[in-house]
Amino acid sequence: MKFQNPSQNPDPAPGRYLLEPGLAARLEGYRLVRYRPAGGEPGGGRRSHRKGGAVEFADYRQYTLGDEPRRVDWKAYARLGRLYVKEFLDERQDCVLLLVDTSASMDYGGEAHKGRCALRVAAGLGVCALAGHDRLAAAAGGSQTALLAPLGGRGSIFRLLQFLEGLTFGGVSDLAGDLRAALAMAPRTGSLYVFSDLLDLEKVEKTLRLAAGYGLETTLLHIMAPQERQPVLEGEWALVDAESGARVEVSVTPALLLAYRRRLENFLGQLDDLCRRWGARRVMVDSGERPAGTFFITLPRAGVLHPR
């Protein structure tokens, strides 16, 4: 198991291959959307801005009418000539947890690489959370579990990007085991975002059942490559399972492709049934879609993101 503490020094410029600077800046203007009524389900509200007796500094923002004068940073005013207010994180607030599947099956898709898409979407949602002063933790699992301890504030965005960029793909997924390890590290987790191709229904249900037991608000970001949704194949093929190594030789015909699409529709229906059973939601993410389309069209339409 790999464990990364946010006190370690980051690389000089992490995040470039996951999020372009302009894209990251736009994402800071978006927030994560809860799908449960605030305070109505386990986990409660994710964030809490305490007036006065705060416990952990998060960020600065410009003073607005009605802010408490005692929260103004007068040293910053002396240097910059503008009024800024300190914002703090309440240690009692819930934490947002990003759980990324880095198993071998995610290492697929060519230009529409599923794993790279999962890391990019996780990075984007993490930027939204940290810019909104949510506490954030991250975990990933495939050949081994990697953990990023809870952190907060805009200044932690580079730390998150560095963690995600350091992940590699391989091995067999164990999302429930990775989630259990992450919850031991971040026991105040209230919201869970899973980034995976969700190939194994049994493992998905095990993960959802565990999340429900902890009262988590769970969103599955279902990453699929275009060629998985609409395969363009013909002739003789040898298909190999990326995780088990199982091999099957097939003769691809129009009838076989039609049968595949029907099986896929049935599989997606079973995933949605599991989500309804365990109080989660599933959002399809096409790994071939342009990042701007994913963040500013697909995810807002699905109710995952919303402009601040």
From TrEMBL:
It comes from the Bacteria. Pfam families: DUF58 (PF01882). InterPro entries: DUF58, vWFA_dom_sf. Residues 59-260 form the DUF58 domain. SUPFAM superfamilies: vWA-like. This is DUF58 domain-containing protein. It comes from Desulfofundulus kuznetsovii (strain DSM 6115 / VKM B-1805 / 17) (Desulfotomaculum kuznetsovii). The lineage of its organism: Bacteria, Bacillati, Bacillota, Clostridia, Eubacteriales.
